[in-house]
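Our consortium's second objective concerns turning raw sequence data into structural hypotheses that experimental partners can test. To show how far this objective has progressed, the report includes one record in full. It was chosen at random from the queue rather than selected for favorable results. The single chain below, 192 residues long, was entered without modification.
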Amino acid sequence: MRKIYTRTGDDGTTGIHGGGRVPKDDIRIEANGCLDELNALIGIVRSMLEEDDPWQELLFTVQRELMTVMSHVATPSVIRKQNPNPVPEDMDRLCERWMDDMMEQLTDNGFFILPGGTPLAAQLQYARTVARRAERRLWSLHREDPVPAEILRFVNRLSDLFFVMARFELQRQNWPEEKWKSFAYKRKKKMD
């Protein structure tokens, strides 16, 4: 790549896979922008981890697969088969396995918690919210042009994964969770 700028976007459009152009605020571009933001945020999280932290490998895998996801989001469904990158399969299950392992070690607090705590936990909570926004944008795109189910499941699991990782980070740093309210079903049980 010789130049980073092309000047082709000066008219408010951007290129998508397959050679077409769409407005920069098109839902496809908005969805990819959210995924790109999430990927950059995961990079921040990784920069806060020790090089040998077991989360490095997981988050590296997530980042690589998000790049593949973005290539598919940039590709209209009518030409998606031309995309040389295979749709990530089983990433939702990988996230579930990591969450299950962490949940076995987490204490059940029974409360909604406030985002924050350690700098790493706070960044993980932020990643959770960006993943949720990306998921909403993907569903908006899906109503206009189908998004592969594997991608929708993966991004849905990511927000859950980051929430569990944030809680796990607080526990491994022996940092107290700031509680907001107990879960409604638990409050009801206490009242009965």
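The partners drew two points from this record. Strands lie at 13-15, 21-23, 111-113, 179-182. The chain has six helices and four strands. Both points have been shared with the crystallography group to help prioritize constructs.
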